[in-house]
Amino acid sequence: MEKNIVSFTHVEKKYEEEYVLKDITFELKKGKFYTLLGPSGCGKSTILNIIAGFTQPSSGVVVLNGDNAINTPAEKRKVNTVFQDYALFPHMNVFDNVAFGLKLKRISKQQIREKVKTALQLVRLNGFENKETTEMSGGQKQRVAIARAIVNEPDVLLLDEPLSALDLKLRTEMQYELRALQRRLGITFLFVTHDQEEALAMSDEIMVMKNGEIVQTGTPMDIYDEPINRYVADFIGESNIVKGRMLSDYLVSFAGKRFVCVDGGMNTNEKVDVVIRPEDLTVTDADAGQIQITVETQLFRGVHYEIVGLDQSGNEWLIHSTKKTESGKIVGLTFQPEDIHIMRLSETEEDFDERIEQYTTSVNADEKGADFHG
């Protein structure tokens, strides 16, 4: 059985009367790459700070390596953090920055030299020991920060949006390096980001957050292919989300037509959200399409054309296609049953739809009454 390095059970954090975290429960296994994904202010960094010991939860249980961590001070936890701004000491060279934590432990100079050398090799900075950090690029500074964290041999490495200050090319390179480094070290990484591409590229498991809660947990493929609700579908990649109705198991109605799908277990005639990813739509001749759209715009994105069009029901469709078309043209769209993903509406969405339906019925009745009496 895989060992739990970290576990949260019903953890909450509030400041005065405002909740930052609400009923957070999860487990982190040894040697896996986890990502907390969500917008700014959703509570991601607060979870890191609780694990690191910088913040105390208002309630709940936090366990590190099988021990209740609530009363364990930060310096006693086998946890290290890599911050967004690197947090390097500008008056120290690379060696002294990386060795700082080891010196506090009062281990021998020989051990420090060996550990620093190994850590710098792991982040591909061999020979940089005497380099001033103020003379280094952003990517090199990030590697120094990571080396300083891993040199202490933590059980968990916390990474708080560490790539957000880098340019796109360097950020992509560092994604590969971080993933490879995690596999070489075999320790647990908990990565915080608001960038869904980073989360999908690097993670073994993603926890999607919203307003202090974990909305969905799963592998990148699970979350991308089977989002639990509209929020997750929108946050994880680009999506076409249209209103539909489940007619029966494996049969759904949307865009004015019926389609076979692979989802079941819902109520007959239940209102649902239907998700189809842009890359799962194929552009064809209008007569051959399962849905017909009028092309509104088309942009060339290098590897594909990004096409936006409207169907006869007024739904907007985004398509990623290698096939060029033109604005104003009517084209067809085809897709497979497994490309259709069905999501139950949240309670608030159901209530909203119900109110709109009741309002529309009421207005129509009033209009008919006015016509009759008029």
TrEMBL record:
Pfam families: ABC_tran, TOBE_2. Keywords: ATP-binding, Nucleotide-binding, Translocase, Transport. GO terms for cellular component: ATP-binding cassette (ABC) transporter complex. PANTHER family: SPERMIDINE/PUTRESCINE IMPORT ATP-BINDING PROTEIN POTA, SPERMIDINE_PUTRESCINE IMPORT ATP-BINDING PROTEIN POTA. GO terms for molecular function: ABC-type quaternary ammonium compound transporting activity; ATP binding; ATP hydrolysis activity. InterPro entries: AAA+_ATPase, ABC_SmlMolc_Importer, ABC_transporter-like_ATP-bd, ABC_transporter-like_CS, Mo/tungstate-bd_C_term_dom, P-loop_NTPase, Transp-assoc_OB_typ2. It comes from Alkalibacterium kapii. This is ABC-type quaternary amine transporter. The gene is potA. The keyword DNA repair does not apply. Gene3D superfamilies: 2.40.50.100, P-loop containing nucleotide triphosphate hydrolases (3.40.50.300). The keyword Phosphoprotein does not apply. Residues 6-236 form the ABC transporter domain. Its EC number is 7.6.2.9.
